[in-house]
Amino acid sequence: MPISDNHHYILSYYRTGEITGALFFGRLAKIMRPGPIQMDMTKHFADEAAHAYYWTEAIRRLGREPLKLRDSYQDQYNEAIGIPVNVMETLAVTQVFERRVINAYARHERAPNLDPVVKETITKIMEDEKWHIYWIKNALTGLESEYGKDHIEETIKRYWLADKEVYANTMQEHEERIDEIMKGKG
Amino acid sequence: MTTTAIGVKTRIAEVLNISADRVSEETNLKDLVSDSFLLVEMAIELQEDFQVRFSQEDLKVVHTVQDLIALIEINLSSK
Ligand SMILES: [Fe+2]
Ligand SMILES: [Fe+2]
User: Fold this and answer.
1) Residue B39 half-sphere exposure, CB side, CA atoms within 13 Å?
2) Going by CATH, does the domain composed of A5-182 fall within 1.10.720.60?
3) Which of A14, A76, A177, B64 is most buried, judged by most C-beta within 10 A?
């Protein structure tokens, strides 16, 4: 059975988000000095690129083509928080972004009557996403002596608040579609 | 011109891949970078080169190359 328009839109949005993530982390990986953070950031970037491929493939297996979407959330998010200017700030932005993603996938995974292709794709991606949260948390802990624990926490909190505000402003349509999916009307 | 000033200008030119004579103290940083990510790159490179640290907050008042040099010099002198 081909997927509904709601699912088509949401899965295409996931694909776009994964591409945005891959491009952002790829650029970070490119400018970082050699070391463990560079190593993990490179793996992270490769994972997000793979996720974009998984969604592209999943959408096609479900009988549709990915929609070309603008990522207005990401556009406005960058505007709202400004550009990060040190390694700690880039990791803090990344952590907020990753938490948003993992929450979205975890919620979607609980939808009733979920197509096996969607379920399989989310499960596969979630394995990587858990590692993303884990390595960033560790890296930020490792930066505490340099930047101060309180300062790091304040930075994350500031980004998290900006994220919530931007999400509320840009994702109304998205939320309505997800609500339908969560009611099993996918 | 201080050695820091010379160092900062040289590094900016290198990161942005432009000729050093395009970078003067009065140059507005926004005129040099075509996309905001290059600013991230430049900021990270300069912090590593000069062993200083600045935040998003510090950069809010930085507009010109001279502002950036001043920020780095203040950071260095408070070490
Ligand atoms: Fe991902
Ligand atoms: Fe991720």
Assistant:
1) 23
2) no
3) A14
**Residue appearing with tokens 């996938």:** A105
ipTM of the complex: 0.83
Domain ranges of chain A: 5-182
Residues of B in contact with A83 (CB under 8 A): 36-37, 39-40, 56
DSSP secondary structure letters along A88-124: HHHHHHHHHHHHHHHHHHHHHHT-TT--HHHHHHHHH
> In this predicted model, what pLDDT tens digit does every residue of A81-140 receive, in sequence order?
878 899 999 999 999 989 999 999 999 999 998 999 999 999 999 999 999 999 999 999
Residue B39 belongs to domain with CATH number: 1.10.1200.10
DSSP single-letter state for residue B3 = H
Cβ atoms within 10 A of the Cβ of A119, count?
13
* Residue A115 backbone phi and psi in degrees, to 5: -60, 135
The SS3 assignment for B28 reads: strand
Cβ-nearest to A86 among B36, B54, B60: B54
